[in-house]
Structure formats: structure tokens, C-alpha cells
């Protein structure tokens, strides 16, 4: 899928952990694919949703490596990013995650991410996890398949 086409079809995007890591750490292979998405967020063209799962996963390596600046970059991007909503996980989302796990055989973390995306009314979920593609309730966009 072309990035411009994806952005034209999306108003509210759930951002999984990997795309965020690619952007914040400027991954040599993936940054060029995700940067236009974060530019659209900054411009207000689209809105994003993230979750506590994203925050916890993104912070593991910066904590291990004691990279305080990278830790803060993740915290700022995920919890206070421009046009980004940090959504808590409650009992309703937890029940939906259990249904998704049951239906699609997802891991608990993937099911929680999808449940947050659905609860937030997201049009699309951006990930690089092909296993999430099984979900039919939301359009799943795989970073590896994005074209400039």
C-alpha cells in the first residue's frame, strides 16, 4: 500500500510498538516508511492512538541501556505526542481482548493492542506484526508493505 493512499483513507490510526520504535530511533530501513505518518500526525491530517502496552514495550531497551534521552523521547511521543491519544486499558477493553484472543489466536499483548484500537474507533492499525493481519474488525497496515 502506498503511504499517501493509506493516509488518505485514515482519520484515526492506532500505532503499534514497532512503528514507533522505527520512528523514534530512526531505524535505517524503516524510518523512511514511518516518518511521513508522523509528519501527518504533526500536521493534524490524522490522529493517533497508543496504549500502555506500546509504552511498556518501547521502553525496555532504553531502560536496559540506560538511555534517558531515548526513554524521554518515547514517553513524549507515546503519551504527549501531537494529535496522539494515550488510551488506558480498562475492563471493557480487557474483555474485548479476550474475545479477540479466542477468535484469532492472538497473543495477549496483540489482542490488547487491537482491543484498544477498536475501542478508540481507529480506522487502521499500523504494525509490523503479520499475525495481527488475521483480525477482520480493523484494517491492519504492515510497515514492511508500505510503499513510498
Overall morphology:
globular
What gap, in angstroms, lies between the N and C termini? 9 Å
CATH superfamily caption of the domain at 3-89 and 120-128 and 137-143: 5'-nuclease
Rg from alpha-carbon coordinates: 14 Å
Order of helices and strands: HEHHEHHEHHEE
Major sheet: 5 strands, parallel
CATH architecture of the domain at 3-89 and 120-128 and 137-143: 3-Layer(aba) Sandwich
CATH class of the domain at 3-89 and 120-128 and 137-143: Alpha Beta
Quaternary form: single chain
Number of helices: 7
> Residue share in helices?
40-55%
CATH topology of the domain at 3-89 and 120-128 and 137-143: Rossmann fold
Overall SS class = alpha/beta
Kindly estimate the percentage of residues that lie in beta strands according to DSSP. Answer: 5-15%
Poorly predicted regions are none
Mean pLDDT: 96
Give the total of beta strands. 5
Strand order of the largest sheet: 3-2-1-4-5
Describe the structure.
Helix 2 (about 15-25) packs across helix 3 (about 30-45), helix 2 (about 15-25) crosses helix 4 (about 50-65) and helix 6 crosses helix 7 (about 110-120). The protein has a 5-stranded parallel sheet with strand order 3-2-1-4-5, with helices on both faces. It is an alpha/beta fold and about 150 residues long. It has helices at about 5-10, 15-25, 30-45, 50-65, 70-80, 90-105, 110-120; strands at about 10-15, 45-50, 85, 125, 140. The protein is built from 7 helices and 5 strands, in the order αβααβααβααββ. It has a domain at about 5-90 and about 120-130 and about 135-145: Rossmann fold (3-Layer(aba) Sandwich). The termini are close together. The radius of gyration is 14 Å and the shape is globular. The model has no long low-confidence stretch (mean pLDDT about 95).
Amino acid at each position: 500500500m502506498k503511504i499517501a493512499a493509506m493516509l488518505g483513507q485514515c482519520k484515526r490510526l492506532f500505532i503499534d510498538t514497532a512503528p514507533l520504535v522505527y520512528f523514534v530511533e530512526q531505524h535505517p530501513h524503516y524510518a523512511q516508511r514511518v516518518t511521513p505518518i508522523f509528519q501527518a500526525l504533526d500536521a493534524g491530517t490524522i490522529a493517533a492512538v497508543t496504549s500502555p502496552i506500546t509504552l511498556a514495550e518501547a521502553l525496555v531497551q532504553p531502560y536496559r541501556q540506560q538511555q534517558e534521552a531515548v526513554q524521554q523521547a518515547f514517553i513524549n511521543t507515546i503519551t504527549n505526542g501531537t494529535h496522539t491519544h494515550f488510551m488506558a486499558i480498562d475492563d471493557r477493553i480487557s474483555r474485548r481482548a479476550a474475545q479477540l484472543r479466542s477468535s484469532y489466536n492472538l497473543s495477549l499483548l496483540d489482542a490488547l493492542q487491537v482491543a484498544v484500537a477498536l475501542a478508540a474507533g481507529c480506522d487502521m492499525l499500523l504494525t509490523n506484526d503479520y499475525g495481527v493481519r488475521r483480525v477482520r474488525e480493523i484494517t491492519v497496515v504492515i510497515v514492511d508493505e508500505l510503499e513510498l
